[in-house]
Amino acid sequence: MKLQRPVNRIASEHPILWHIAISHYNEKARWALDFKRIEHERHVLAPGYHMVFTLAMTRGRHYTTPLLELDGQRIGDSTDIIAALEQRHPEPPLYPEEPVERRRALELEDYFDSELGPYVRRLVFHELRSERAGAARLARVAAPSLVERFPRL
To answer: Could you write out the DSSP letters of every residue in 57-97?
Structure first.
């Protein structure tokens, strides 16, 4: 697998989503783009190597995915991506308009991102450590080119 060099062009006709295939944070950004029917490009990064790529693309501001190139900006973090999409493409809305409901939705998003998400990920990785066949299946989905290049990993 050849690691893609960060691209210097930042403006594109369509937003560009850099992501890893298996991640609930990345899925959140993909769902938001799909729900809003925003035409965009997707580029899958190999897990692990994605950190080097996103650090280079954001000049050290982010090391995780998803990363969205939108209107000349590089936006990391799924919550920040959704906020940018809501601002630039308000229809259809992802959050309720009513202030109390909107605040509750944002609180739930924050809870699932910070309190539940990391533990779900940790549980999955823990289980995969003892289940080599399941880990191999996941690797083939998450990073097929990496598995092809290093079949004994």
So the answer is: HTTTS--SS-EEEETTEEEESHHHHHHHHHHH--SS-SS-S
What span, in angstroms and rounded, lies between the C-alpha atoms of 152 and 11?
39
Six token digits for residue 83 = 């906020």
Consecutive H or E run containing 55: helix 50-57
Please give the structure tokens belonging to residue 39.
């035409």
Buried/exposed 85-97: b ≥16 CB within 10 Å, e otherwise: beeebeeeebeee
pTM for this structure? 0.73
pLDDT tens for each residue of 58-96? 888 888 899 999 999 999 999 999 999 999 999 999 999
